[in-house]
Write a structure and sequence with these properties.
TolA/TonB C-terminal domain, 5 helices, globular
Length: 215
């Protein structure tokens, strides 16, 4: 994906891979005419497997929003170039990935969203415990703009992944009971992702944070 020169397993390489994937999707994703006509916007969730040779296999639709967006999301996954395969004890292995793909009528690339920040209670860094997630269940997720001002959240989603299994829920900005159920599933070894979309000058901006559950 364009990050081959960076050392495997480093945060720098992970960020590079994330950025390259977002750029690829933003350049190749086709917004279906039917979805544009119906004004359909939102987030499609897909999964796929990167095999031992780095080939993308078994793209699968987890959550669709209609209007042909699910099919368009699967098409862009099938068009992805080869990845570097995951390694286990130095040997290539299959890795299952889950990915949210944003459909907004006025979309921008992730780079523009860098000045925006997302917080949920007192969660910091890239690690969290199950207890820390549960402690935040009654707190609101907050998105702040470049000036530090709070922004209205148009769409909020919680996604939890572990051992190739995925649980996801979304709302119109509030941490409702469905989202709380996703947080309660968190266990050591899983990955918990918060994604939020906000409007800025008529454009939707997506901001997300992921946490490795460490205990």
């Amino acid at each position: 994906m364009g990050c081959e020169a960076l050392r495997s397993g480093t945060e720098e390489k992970r960020k590079c891979a994330d950025q390259e994937m977002v750029r690829f999707i933003s350049r190749h994703l086709v917004y279906p005419d039917s979805a544009i006509t119906m004004g359909i916007q939102g987030t499609v969730y897909v999964s796929f497997v990167v095999d031992e040779a780095g080939k993308v296999q078994r793209p699968n639709l987890l959550i669709d929003i209609g209007g042909g967006c699910g099919a368009a999301a699967l098409d862009v996954i099938r068009e992805m170039p080869d990845w570097e395969p995951g390694l286990r004890y130095g040997h290539p292995v299959k890795v299952k990935l889950n990915l949210p793909i944003q459909f907004f009528l006025k979309n921008i690339e992730k780079d523009v969203a860098e000045p925006y920040s997302l917080t949920w209670g007192d969660l910091k860094g890239q690690d969290a415990t199950r207890q820390e997630l549960l402690k935040n269940l009654e707190n609101a997720v907050t998105v702040r703009g470049p000036e530090g001002d709070n922004r209205h959240i148009a769409e909020l989603s919680f996604l939890y992944e572990k051992n190739g299994k995925t649980a996801v829920a979304k709302s119109h900005g509030e941490v409702n009971e469905e989202l709380k159920k996703i947080a309660r599933k968190a266990k050591k070894g899983g990955r918990f992702t918060i994604s939020a979309s906000t409007l800025d000058k008529g454009q939707f901006i997506s901001v997300s944070r992921s946490f490795e559950i460490i205990q």
